[in-house]
């Protein structure tokens, strides 16, 4: 039994959001303030924090506010709906159906739905909360609130926030560490022998502490006031030893490169964060069933597992997360983690005005060959592209350099706008990127050359446009490629220098015309050792000397249209 779906209504910045979860591991991505943390908090509230309806765990700031609902008293109720679903591949075992039989519903008798509501009670002027199980029609099943205990025993919830400090997790009262300390796995004979030794050692320590003599000599005078024994009326003795209490003061140390033992809490934040995750992993693998239920399978939410980690460690931590037992829901900002995540596990959140939507790549969207190319060109090598708001699809390396540098000259901050340039020629064209962008809610715009190859790219994009406005998504250059465009815009000198004086003299077209630069381009295209990207960068240096007025109008128009479109979204 796994959590299949969560619906969140009127919670913090979320008006309404439904997210389907993978059976094993779900990775949630999106911009800041798009709802990632709110989703994890909703899970924590509904599946762990709220233990009773007698008090309310929600605060006034958890309720969605807008102009129509400026305060908590006028706010709509918070509603979380959790759906646990059985599948044909993973049928519910008998212990599930026995323990939760009264709340299992659905056409196939394979669903459990739990609803949690938080609201402001106008009559009593206070916040209240309640939960209930739902039938197939989403009506409350009466008198079954107590079944929440059975559900939580079988599917306990654990949350790891982005702040993971060793001092908070490796001490005697911390949940996971204390579970190991309290585990009574020392046999009785060994326990008795160790406690006798501890008592002897503690007595020697007390006897050696001469300051106690001053106390005992003074306290002996009590015999002048009350009746006490006369042999040894006062003594300082060790408390009977308890070896499990001694374990509370143990400390985990890590060796430094110089072989010095240093407590984990004194190491760097990255080491601390990783150590806490590993402690959590040990708890889930070794102690969970003993502390909860023998059939327990955890639901685990982890926020930013990459926090404070080096990129190499970040990539490696994915294997730790994947191997954790139970169902995992992870929120991340790391392209390095995405480089390891199968695309079907991704859920991307997009904020548009006041609404947040969840997107994923549906099964079968990409062919096996398209998926291979996508994994190579984006997921494994440029995972950060999946965080972008906008993909500017261009043909090759030179296009990437030119549009990036021209944007800089024009004072357009592509990163602030969430725009990333994507070279698509190596992946066989724009089709793969357009499919993925549309599925994940990423806006895109294609820039194609005015040649046969560019027309193929345009045709491929048009097939995926459906009823959308072509001008908004596709720009066709007025020249066969970006190099000739630069030459015709007054920046052809670096290209002509590569032709050589002798061949320049043989050119038949009038200097400076489009036909002239076509001839130059044909020659340099066959010239061994000539670098078109290097020539393009030299052209950029010339352009920078002029400033914004030197940017070719065609490139300026494309970038201006692009930023306006981003602003509209």
Features:
single chain, 569 residues, alpha/beta, 6-stranded mixed beta sheet, 5-stranded antiparallel beta sheet, 23 helices, elongated
**Spatial order of the strands forming the largest sheet:** 7-10-11-3-12-13
Low-confidence stretches: none
Could you tell me the radius of gyration in angstroms?
33 Å
Instruction: Estimate the global geometry from the Cα principal axes.
Output: elongated
Oligomer: single chain
> Average pLDDT across residues?
88
Query: How far apart are the first and last residues' alpha carbons, in Å?
Result: 39 Å
Number of strands: 17
Structural class: alpha/beta
Written account of the structure:
With 569 residues, the protein is α/β, with parallel strands linked by helices. Helix content is 40%, strand content 18%. It has helices spanning 36-49, 94-99, 147-154, 166-169, 175-182, 188-208, 211-219, 243-246, 269-286, 288-291, 311-323, 335-338, 368-379, 397-409, 431-440, 452-463, 470-473, 482-491, 493-497, 501-506, 514-525, 532-546, 553-568; strands at residues 2-11, 14-20, 25-30, 78-85, 111-121, 126-134, 157-160, 253-255, 261-263, 299-303, 327-331, 346-352, 355-359, 390-394, 419-423, 443-448, 474-476. α14 packs parallel to α22 and α18 packs across α21. The longest helix has 21 residues, at 188-208. The radius of gyration is 33 Å and the shape is elongated. The two termini are 39 Å apart. 32% of the residues are buried.
